[in-house]
Design a protein that fits this description.
Layout lengths: L5 H4 L14 H7 L4 E4 L5 H13 L3 E4 L7 H4 L1 H13 L3 E4 L2 H14 L8 E9 L7 H6 L5 H10 L8 H12 L5 E10 L5 E12 L2 E11 L7 E7 L4 E5 L7 H9 L1 H5 L4 E3 L21
Parallel strand pairs: 1-2, 2-3, 3-10, 4-7
Antiparallel strand pairs: 4-8, 5-6, 6-7, 8-9
Helix pairs in contact: 3-5, 6-9
């Protein structure tokens, strides 16, 4: 796709006058950008490797890498390297996305604002997975494969399911005063008439001294008519329960979450920015309108 117009590749129906490049050195040397949106990996170490050049060029970064919601939980060494590099060049790096961060950290934190003494949180997502079929996400979840292929994929480390439970648990524990010392997971696969997976369910639980503090369930399906929702239950001084129905669907909400964090990113201090030191909203004008003096 190098050399083609971004509008053409994105299927917008018209050119944007922005050519896709495969020469990152030339691109970062010639482009005066405020923000780079990074959506090409999952792990902290890979994120560090891929962001060295844009950070050195003085570009702030929003990354959708799942481990970047709480990078030190997964890779303290690579986290320090990334944080040091960003600080050196005076730019900020923020990890965010739909899940982890928006639905499993931001919304529970917001819902808790009307209470005190939070004892536990449950979040359940019944999602329509059809938008992800054929993507690397479907490959990681093991959707659309036989039982034999699923078992082999798990053995080979290709099928890993949802990445981010541990980081989300660490973040929520940090804000609510819990020390999550154990994470358990229960997984199930559901097969259709063709003998391939049509549904995947994972329930992860975070424990503190034998007490369950957090439960998160992700149950994705490709069946027609699958009922979808995002459900939140917060047990506290004032219990709070909320359901979003139907669930947020597809990849557009993911892109929107990344874009909507631009104003907050540009006001952040250099280095890695963690939740909830940023705010996101569906800004309705030029980004600059929402920026205070830096």
């Amino acid at each position: 796709v190098a050399g083609r117009d971004l509008g053409e590749v994105a299927g917008l129906g018209s050119d944007l006058g922005i050519l896709i490049s495969n020469d990152e050195d030339a691109l970062f040397a010639s482009t005066k950008a405020d923000v780079l949106i990074h959506t090409t990996t999952t792990h902290v170490a890979d994120t560090y490797d891929q962001l060295k050049k844009p950070l050195a060029a003085g570009i702030n970064v929003i990354t959708a890498a799942e481990e970047m919601s709480s990078p030190a939980t997964y890779d303290p060494e690579a986290t320090k390297l990334l944080d040091d590099l960003a600080r050196k060049h005076g730019v900020a790096v923020l990890g965010t996305g739909l899940w982890p961060t928006y639905v499993d950290i931001d919304i529970p934190l917001l819902l808790s604002a009307g209470s005190r003494g939070v004892q536990s949180i449950k979040y359940c997502r019944h999602g329509d997975f059809r938008a992800y079929m054929g993507s690397v996400v479907a490959k990681h979840f093991g959707m659309g494969v036989t039982k034999e292929a699923y078992s082999q994929g798990v053995k080979d480390g290709v099928i890993v399911g949802h990445v981010g439970f541990e980081g989300s648990f660490e973040r929520l524990g940090h804000y609510f005063g819990w020390t999550i010392d154990k994470v358990t997971k229960d997984e199930a696969q559901f097969y259709g008439p063709a003998g391939t997976t049509t549904g995947i369910r994972t329930i992860a639980r975070g424990w503190e001294n034998g007490v369950q503090r957090i439960e998160m369930e992700i149950h994705v399906c490709v069946d027609e008519g699958w009922e979808t929702y995002d459900k939140f239950d917060i047990e506290a001084e004032v219990p709070t329960h909320m359901m979003i129905k139907p669930a947020l669907y597809g990849t557009r909400p993911v892109a929107n979450v990344l874009v909507n964090h631009i104003p907050a990113l540009l006001q952040a201090k250099p280095g890695i920015v963690l939740r909830s030191t940023v705010g996101a909203f569906a800004f309705g004008s030029e980004v600059g309108k929402y920026l205070s003096d830096r």
